[in-house]
Amino acid sequence: MNDLIIGDKAIGYIQQHLRDANAKAMRIFIGGGGCCTRLEITPVEKALVGDVTYERDGVTIHVDKALVEGAASIEIGFDEKRGLLIDLN
After folding, report:
1. At the N or C end, where does the chain have fewer CB atoms within 10 A?
2. Quick one: pLDDT band at residue 5, thresholds 50, 70, 90?
3. Whole-prediction pTM value?
């Protein structure tokens, strides 16, 4: 993966969520199973083995190794009605 892009609204939302959860970082990973896999993002204290860590505007994001290897970039946006939106490119 070449780049992690986080929109300004997403940065603000993540910063607030980290404060509320009293967490140091967010982690993006593949959740679910079988035919219902999905991307998930959750507050964490530390990266897991193999995660790749990115920092943007004071926000630390740990990304699952499989996502880093399978995407050219990840873009995180925020929509008032739908919340955080994660796009793999």
Report:
1. C
2. very high
3. 0.90
